[in-house]
């Protein structure tokens, strides 16, 4: 069955090369390619009736669901640009992104849509035409937002050529699941690893995506066994959950892949002891997609693996840089990050001079990863500073986000916590607030940002709120 849409689109073969009865994904049930094509075709017709076509810009703000994936593919078949907005974002964050990006159309879940599982099959949605919307940026088919070093989100645009090149890198990666294999996908389907390394690679290679009904260790293990999945893709948080679970034999499992942030060695060791295989790293950024990986040797963290096929990287003053043809940032040149054809990752890495293997040594800026999600500490600081009773703020991270806040005597920890929750997604809200008349400074008057020094020099009378 042909998909209704533009005469040709960059991922056309994804939907067309499999037989109708081939399984595309397993959620609460098996979903075939016939069903996928029918749903995408139906939504493409609905989008066409709303005026969405080549050069249109469409934002999607929906929970993880088959409906979200159908809508994304339908928009692409129409030749539109898709912008993905994390449904966990607050209203404030969504409004800010819409003001920055000004998509012509917004597809969002209807309020109160029930979330019955990890990947819901059917989510009712509304389609809004926005009067202030702008057409798609030239040669950009995917727009994603990521925390930025100035406290405002980085808006990243990727071309169809960039996505197809990334898919070729995945296809060439030794050990990557292929046709007929099943992958239990725990990564978010709107973030780079889950979307490209999971959903799109599955469509491209014939690997089947498996989604658990609940994000519990017992459910994940049982789903892996029942579907005979050969791989689990997730973030360190997922593998920490599995590493703490009761050991269970999963004979089909040959591969576990972690992305999003460095996996703690303790989790790597515990998982290997329980399941009999190591966790393999995949490393990349929203801007570039996959950069390095090692799915074969079972190397311990902090090893990231070799750069994938076609990736040109360099380590300058201990920081990894990646060659790109053009800036990935929309509506901002981001000269602090992209200059003269090189993207600064702000990740500190070592590169083995003999075999080229990269090892991770930490972040060089204010962006940290929590549960596979990037959080810009500067963004959290600026949110705190918007409060009328806050004069200054320093936000640091170790195991959790901590905020040192200098403000009026009337300021309470409960007030500032509520303020953050109203303006930041839950995973960005500090877990600890330390309030005083002023934030700690060194002898030169500079704000202290080292967590250990902050703890030692914390002013008498400051109090803590968890």
Report a brief summary of the structure.
The protein has 466 residues and is α/β, with parallel strands linked by helices. The chain has helices at residues 12-16, 33-49, 66-77, 91-101, 160-172, 192-205, 217-227, 236-243, 265-275, 377-385, 413-423, 451-457, and strands at 23-26, 30-32, 57-61, 81-84, 105-109, 125-129, 142-146, 154-158, 182-185, 208-210, 231-234, 255-258, 280-285, 289-293, 303-307, 313-316, 319-323, 338-339, 342-351, 358-363, 367-370, 373-376, 390-397, 401-407, 432-436, 463-465.
Task: Tell me what you see in this structure.
Helix 2 (33-49) crosses helix 3, helix 5 packs across helix 6 and helix 8 (236-243) crosses helix 9. It contains twelve helices and 26 strands. The chain is globular and about 65 Å long. The chain has helices at residues 12-16, 33-49, 66-77, 91-101, 160-172, 192-205, 217-227, 236-243, 265-275, 377-385, 413-423, 451-457; strands spanning 23-26, 30-32, 57-61, 81-84, 105-109, 125-129, 142-146, 154-158, 182-185, 208-210, 231-234, 255-258, 280-285, 289-293, 303-307, 313-316, 319-323, 338-339, 342-351, 358-363, 367-370, 373-376, 390-397, 401-407, 432-436, 463-465. It folds into two domains: 12-363, 3-Layer(aba) Sandwich (Rossmann fold), CATH 3.40.50.12780; 370-465, ANL, C-terminal domain (GMP Synthetase, Chain A, domain 3), CATH 3.30.300. The longest helix is centred in the N-terminal third of the chain and has 17 residues, at 33-49. The protein is α/β, with parallel strands linked by helices and 466 residues long.
């Amino acid at each position: 069955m042909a998909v209704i849409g533009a005469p040709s689109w960059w991922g056309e073969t994804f939907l067309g090369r499999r037989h109708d009865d081939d399984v595309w994904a397993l959620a609460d049930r098996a979903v075939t390619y016939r069903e996928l094509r029918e749903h995408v075709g139906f939504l493409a017709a609905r989008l066409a009736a709303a005026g969405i076509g080549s050069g249109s810009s469409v934002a999607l703000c929906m929970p993880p669901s088959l409906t979200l994936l159908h809508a994304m593919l339908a928009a692409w078949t129409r030749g539109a640009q898709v912008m993905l907005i994390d449904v966990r974002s607050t209203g404030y964050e969504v409004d800010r992104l819409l003001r920055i990006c000004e998509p012509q159309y917004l597809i969002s879940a209807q309020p109160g849509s029930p979330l019955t599982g990890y990947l819901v099959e059917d989510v009712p949605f509304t389609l809004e035409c926005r009067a202030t919307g702008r057409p798609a940026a030239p040669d950009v088919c995917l727009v994603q937002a990521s925390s930025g070093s100035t406290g405002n989100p980085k808006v990243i645009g990727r071309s169809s050529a960039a996505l197809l090149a990334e898919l070729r890198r995945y296809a060439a990666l030794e050990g990557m699941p292929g046709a007929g294999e099943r992958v239990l996908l725990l990564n978010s389907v709107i973030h780079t690893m889950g979307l490209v390394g999971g959903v799109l690679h599955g469509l491209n290679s014939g690997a089947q995506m498996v989604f658990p009904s609940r994000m519990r260790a017992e459910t994940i293990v049982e789903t892996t066994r029942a579907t005979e999945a050969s791989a689990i893709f997730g973030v360190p948080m997922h593998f920490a959950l599995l590493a703490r679970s009761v050991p269970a034999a999963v004979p089909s499992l040959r591969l576990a892949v972690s992305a999003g942030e460095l996996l703690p060695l303790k989790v790597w060791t515990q998982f290997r002891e329980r399941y009999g295989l190591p966790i393999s790293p995949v490393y990349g950024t929203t801007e570039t997609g996959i950069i390095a990986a090692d799915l074969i040797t079972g190397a311990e963290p902090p090893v990231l693996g070799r750069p994938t096929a076609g990736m040109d990287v360099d380590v300058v003053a201990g920081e990894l840089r990646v060659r790109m043809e053009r800036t990935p940032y929309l509506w901002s040149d981001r000269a602090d990050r992209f200059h003269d054809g090189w993207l600064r990752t702000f990740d500190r890495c070592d590169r083995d001079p003999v075999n080229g293997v990269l090892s991770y040594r930490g972040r060089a800026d204010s962006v940290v990863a929590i549960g596979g999600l990037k959080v810009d500490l500067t963004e959290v600081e600026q949110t705190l500073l918007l409060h009328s009773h806050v004069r200054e703020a320093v936000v640091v991270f170790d195991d959790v986000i901590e905020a040192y806040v200098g403000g009026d005597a009337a300021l309470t920890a409960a007030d500032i916590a509520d303020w953050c929750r109203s303006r930041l997604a839950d995973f960005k809200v500090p877990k600890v607030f330390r309030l005083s008349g002023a934030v700690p400074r060194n002898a030169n008057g500079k704000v202290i940002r080292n967590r250990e020094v902050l703890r030692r020099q914390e002013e008498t009378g400051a109090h803590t709120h968890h």
